[in-house]
Amino acid sequence: MENVRLNVALLRRKVPNLTSAAKLVGLRPATVSNLCTGKIPVGRAEVKTIIALAELAECSLDELILRGEKVEMIETKIKAIDLFAPLTKGGVNGLIARPGMGQLVLLAELFYRLKREGMVTILLTPEGNHPEVEDILNNMDYVVNTTAEVYDKVMEIGSNKEIAFASDRGHVANGNIQELQEKLESVGVSAVTTFLLDLSGEVVDENLPYGPLETVWEFDADLAARHKFPAVNPIYSTSSVLEGAHLDQQHLTIQQKAQKLLRRYRELRSLVQVRGSEKLPESEHTTFNRGERLEAYLTQPFYVAETFSGITGVDVQLQTTLEDVRKILDGVYDSVEVDKFNYIGAVK
Prior knowledge:
Elements: E1 4-6, H1 8-14, H2 18-24, H3 29-37, H4 47-57, H5 61-64, E2 65-67, E3 73-74, H6 79-84, E4 87-88, E5 92-96, H7 103-116, E6 120-124, E7 142-144, H8 147-157, E8 163-168, H9 169-173, H10 176-186, E9 192-197, E10 215-218, H11 221-225, E11 238-239, H12 249-275, H13 282-297, H14 306-309, H15 318-330
Parallel strand pairs: 5-9, 5-10, 6-7, 6-8, 8-9
Antiparallel strand pairs: 1-2, 3-4, 10-11
Helix pairs in contact: 8-10, 12-13, 12-15
Protein name: ATP synthase subunit beta
Pfam families: ATP-synt_VA_C (PF22919)
Subcellular location: Membrane
C-alpha cells in the first residue's frame, strides 16, 4: 500500500481549535486524533472524513495527504516507548497524565537520553507556580521564558544540531506554541522535536488537548498505583511511526501481538482480583501468566531516578526489546518467576 499520512503540521497551523471545529462538522475528535497519530491509517478512513478535514483546513486533498514521506522514529532505548509508541523525530509528542503518574520523570529521562545523543534541549518555563519542574532542569541546556526566546535560541543554534523542546499546555492554550511553529516553518526549520505536557492534569479529560499530535503517550493510573514505571499505557499510547509503511514489519507484528496479550491480561487481572486465579480456564492461565511477565518486563530503571530507586539506569536496544518480547509471547520464559522481570533491562 502507498505510504500515505495526514499532514499533521498543516492541520496544526490551519485549524488551531480542531476539537471544536471537528465536532461542528460531525467528526469525532478521537477519530481525528487517531488519524493524526496513525492509529487509524489514512487508507482505512472514510472518504467523507478526509474531505471534511480538508475543508476545515481550507486545503486540497493533495496538501492534506502526504505521500511517500517516511516518518522517522528516535530510538530512546526505553522499552515501553520504543515498542508501543515510538518518539517521532521532528514531530509534536504529547504526554497525557494526571499529577503523580510520572510524566515529569519520563520527560526528564527522555531529555537526559536525547542530550546524551547530542541533541540540544530547551524548556519553555510553564505559566504559574510549578516547583516540581525543578526536577527536570538538570537535563535542560536552555530554560527560557517566552516563545520569542525559543525562536531566537533555535535560530542561534542553527541547523547543525537537532533540538528537543518542551512546553506546558498553558502555552498551547494561549496560542503561543501555534505561532512559534508557524514562525519556524516559515523559515524552513524542521529539526525541532517538540514535547507537550500538562502540569495541571486536566488534559486527560479533553479530546485533542494539544491539537493534532504525531505521538501520544497516555499514562495509566493503575500502573502508576502499582509502581510499574514508566506508567505508559500500552493500549492507548500510539504514534504515527506505527503506520505499516513506516515501521519494520517485525516490529509491527510483535507490537500488535503484545498489545493483544496485554489487553486480555488486563481483563483477566480484574477477574482474578475478584474471583481468584483458580477460576480461570487453563488456556487463560497461560495468557494471564505471560501478560504478567510482559507487564513486569516493560518496567525499566531510569538514569534520572537512580538516587531515589537505588537501581542503575539501563538502555535496551530496540532489537533486544523485540526479541525479549517475542520470547515472552512464545512462552520461552513461562517458568521464570515474575519478579525476575521487574525493573531489568534485557532478559539475561
